[in-house]
Amino acid sequence: MDDRIAALADQLLLIERELRVQGWWDDVAPSAEALSSVEPFSVDTLDFHQWLQWIFLTRMKQILEHNLPLPNASGILEMAEMVYAERPLESLGLRTALKKFDQLIVDAR
């Protein structure tokens, strides 16, 4: 297995861990309608943490498990910085994990 794939998988686990630590992990999935948004980050139907859990993590795990092409870019940290601007200390662990994910995607090119 490519070392980058293993590093990305580990990073996804760290992102999930941070969501759980902060209490931003939901036990119940949003509606199918909410999950089918076509807006970036599903801003019209989901909170950012919901998008991370139900869209981002799910898709990235599928990409890694099925050896699909990795995204060419990732700007998730930028969105997180906007969303959590009022909670910089509370969100530090998550933003750090997302920054590392973004960098791993850039390095994978």
UniProtKB/TrEMBL annotation:
<dbReference type="InterPro" id="IPR007384">
    <property type="entry name" value="UCP006257"/>
</dbReference>
<dbReference type="Pfam" id="PF04287">
    <property type="entry name" value="DUF446"/>
</dbReference>
<protein>
    <submittedName>
        <fullName>Pseudouridine synthase</fullName>
    </submittedName>
</protein>
<dbReference type="InterPro" id="IPR023376">
    <property type="entry name" value="YqcC-like_dom"/>
</dbReference>
<feature type="domain" description="YqcC-like">
    <location>
        <begin position="8"/>
        <end position="104"/>
    </location>
</feature>
<dbReference type="InterPro" id="IPR036814">
    <property type="entry name" value="YqcC-like_sf"/>
</dbReference>
<dbReference type="GO" id="GO:0044010">
    <property type="term" value="P:single-species biofilm formation"/>
</dbReference>
